[in-house]
Specification:
0% strand; mainly alpha
Length: 256
Amino acid sequence: MTIVSGFADISLVQLLLVAAMALFASIIGGLAGYGTGALMPLVLVPLVGAEPVVPIIAISAMLTNASRALAYVRHADRRRAAIVLACAGLTTALGAYGYTRLTNAGAALVIGTMLILSVPLRRVLRRRAVKIGDAGLAAGSVGYGVLVGGTSGSGVILLSLLMAAGLEGAAVVATDAMISLGTGLIKISVFGLAGAVTAQVLALALLIGGMAVPGAFLAKAFVERMPVQIHTAILDAAVITGGLVMTAAAARQLVV
């Protein structure tokens, strides 16, 4: 993967936009347990292209999830986190490697498609209220690893797996954060070996991750005051719209 050189053209206003979106996405993520990986591509892809987006989000997510894990640490289910990481580790690495082989149009198509599918997938899984044991959690984690390694916005799948395994409320958010720290380390290692982690990627990731730290604690303060249905509906609309825009742009590039 060759990272585009458009970073030098990013203005201060655009950087402030990225920072504002990172703070907003972190608050949403702290409330709903997902959102950062789904919202950040909407502002990053137009600025830097699709190729560096997953590496940027993977690195920034380390700070995002560390702050979220710290805020909810006493609620984490360490046993189930260990099950997911043990089963998703190898497939996460394979998914990340596959992503590094994509072109800019291919990366945009993968990210956009995942964003569009994440909304109906979340609704279907919630409606069916599927229940699984440790074996089911382990089996689901293998497939989740492929998606989390090579896409953005796949966090909804992990949340659904954890809820199906019996976790609720803050325990879901905390356990999700612990698992995401582990898969994030794997992804960053693969991206680093593939040359996808440049100084510019790291700078943007640190900006996003830095803004996400206060967002996690703001979300904790708001968690009992804001109706989850409202921000979930807004998030769904934004994710689907952004996914459609990305896939349409990718399709045009592939046709040309």
